[in-house]
Amino acid sequence: MGDDIRNAIEGGTYQGPVMQGRDLQYHQHHHHHTAVKARAPRQLAPEPDVFVDRDPYFAELERAAAGRAARSTPLIVAFTGLGGMGKTATALRWLHRLRRHFPGGQLQADMSPHGHLAPLDPYSVLQGFVQELGTRADERPAGQAALEAHYRSLTARRPLLVLLDDVVNVGQVRPLLPAHPGSVVVVTSRMPLTALKARHPSMLSLTLGSLDRKASAELFRAVAGEEAVPGATALESVLAACGGYPLAVRIAAARAGELYGFGEDPAELARELGDHRTRLEALEVDDLSVPQVLGAVHLSLADGPAALYRALGAHPTPEFSRDLVRRLAGNDTDARTLVRERVLEPAGEGRVRMHRLVHDHARSVGTAADEPAVDRLLEWYLRRAAAVERLVSDRWRYGPVFAEPEGDSHFADAGEALDAFEPDRANAVAATRLAHDLGRYAMAWQLAEALRGFFFRRKYHRDWIEVCELGLKAAGACGDDLALARTHYELAFAHADRGDATDAGTAGRHYREALRLASAAEHARTASSALEGLGLLALREGAAEEAAEHFRQAFRALDGLDHPRGRALLTFHLGRAHAAGHRHQEAADLLLRARRMFAELPGRPDRFNEAKSLWHHARARLRADRPDEALPGLDEAVTLIADCGAPKEQADILLDRGDLLATQGRRAEAETDWRAALTLYEQAGSTQVEKARERLA
């Protein structure tokens, strides 16, 4: 080169820095050649022929691209998300919009063509890029550092686009960043590439999630062809099974088109996808396969995260508490790995979820070696329900989980415990079903016992009855007569509390069976509880004296037993029976005595039943035409029950206080109580909601 080198640029329009020949590390290798002129490659794959949704992402991308002129480094955009979410399609769609503004051309590389376990060496990619930019193989500088410098020189003159697809680690990206500050580098990866963000804080990171219902339907129709789209019901079923997963929607649509082409009903697809046993198999077409994509994710995980993946597949639903995930993993690291791999995604405070198809796949790869995870997750629900149950009530319960020390409670009070358990309500029912179906019978009937407090306070009667029925079957399979007596009692209590037209008869049958079994087992507490239940049914039917006799028998069953809470409850019920029988003074005395007994229980007072005792005392005073003695008790009951997490009972008391205030001409205060009662009845899903609306009308 020597004296022939001139420090000038001739022809064309250039932006950004220009490197002089003497500064290039590889000049000694090319002293017989003039400087290589970079050409503009055109490596971008074609943009997808069918593309839907993602407009919000494009708006953000356009804003980022608009600021390129002011940048001192290339714009890096990372599309992250689960495999099959359309990261590459979205990247190509956007890059094809941009390409005419990039005279330096476009480069593209698949960074893990053989899977995530064998990521491509960036040096080999760099060699290909340099060659594509105009450097012959025999002119390439030796050594990675020199080759990187040469690449920077080649990419310094004109802005270009670079697509690095399916990146596994940040080390694959750094050597391939071009030098021109107006360039754009798009990276797709399952991982969030946090280290790349740390090195390049201006990096724009976009996580692609599932398509919504409208976009899913649009994609399905575009791929299948309008004539192959099944009827509305079947289409809804297919789209629900795909869960907005673009790869699944495309395969399902292709299958529908194939069925139509064979003269078969595309609606048959809905049946295959509706059954979790055949769903994944139905989403395979030649080399395009949801199981294959998800299998690659599973195989790329280290042992710990892979075991957690399979354990979560054993969970009966795809959404769960982060605490449960930590319990199954035994550490936080494995859980964070699954979040990083987009196998888990946030689902609200303290919650995570798997996509439905990911969950199906995780279940499908489970083995017998993963079975202990099932016991750990069932135990987690049982212990959590038991912790809530202990805070809700001091009642006696049967089962090994209640024989253990209580341990540390994470909840300040019953209200906090009930609220914390609310997101796991459906999961607890599903866990009970799973325990029964897998033959973990002791777990199933203990869950029925442990969930009683939550269901009683929150009034989820359908779930409650289902759990009790499963517990009853499980107790029968265990051959434990006392467990059987307890589950008959719990099922009777659930039916009695719901109080539909047919519930009283069902409750009575189960109470009587509980009494028979408990008497045979000589278990006085359960026999007394069953008699108490029969008394409550008689009281509801207006048979006050029959009810009182059942309560007296229940008292006698407790002779010789240290059971202060049971005696407090029976005192309360007997007071109600006397009130129904118009024995007003006896009723008032018994109900106030019950209130004192609940307040003085060993351990802690029972505020819930204190409030109920005061409420029924007020009702008894009203029946005795003594309204002046009713209002103070109602005021105190409202205060006591406010923090008990019992919206239905709280509403009952407010409704009665509002009625009393209205009779005293205090209409504005009455309406305040009625409105509060209406809100609580709606929250509890109570049939009493119409009573509050009638008052307000």
Secondary-structure blueprint:
Blueprint (H helix, E strand, L loop, with lengths): L54 H12 L8 E6 L6 H12 L7 E5 L11 H11 L11 H11 L6 E5 L18 E6 L4 H6 L4 E4 L5 H12 L7 H11 L3 H16 L6 H7 L4 H4 L1 E2 L2 E2 H11 L2 H12 L4 E3 H8 L3 H8 L4 E2 L4 E3 L2 H9 L6 H22 L7 H4 L10 H8 L3 H13 L3 H10 L1 H7 L2 H18 L2 H18 L4 H18 L3 H17 L3 H14 L6 H17 L3 H16 L7 H17 L7 H11 L5 H17 L3 H18 L4 H8 L1
Helix pairs in contact: 3-4, 6-8, 7-9, 11-15, 12-14, 12-15, 16-18, 16-19, 16-20, 16-21, 19-20, 19-22, 20-22, 20-23, 22-23, 23-24, 23-25, 24-25, 25-26, 25-27, 26-27, 27-28, 27-29, 28-29, 29-30, 30-31, 31-32, 32-33
Report on the structure:
Helices cover 58% and strands 5% of the residues. The chain has 697 residues and is mainly alpha-helical. The strands form 3 sheets. Strands 2-3-4-1-5 form a 5-stranded parallel beta sheet, with helices on both faces. A 3-stranded antiparallel beta sheet has the order 8-10-9. Strands 6-7 form a two-stranded antiparallel sheet. Helix 7 runs parallel beside helix 9, helix 28 (584-599) packs antiparallel against helix 29 and helix 29 (607-623) packs antiparallel against helix 30. The longest helix has 22 residues, at 371-392.
Task: Record keyword descriptors for this entry.
single chain; 697 residues; mainly alpha; three-stranded antiparallel sheet; 58% helix; elongated
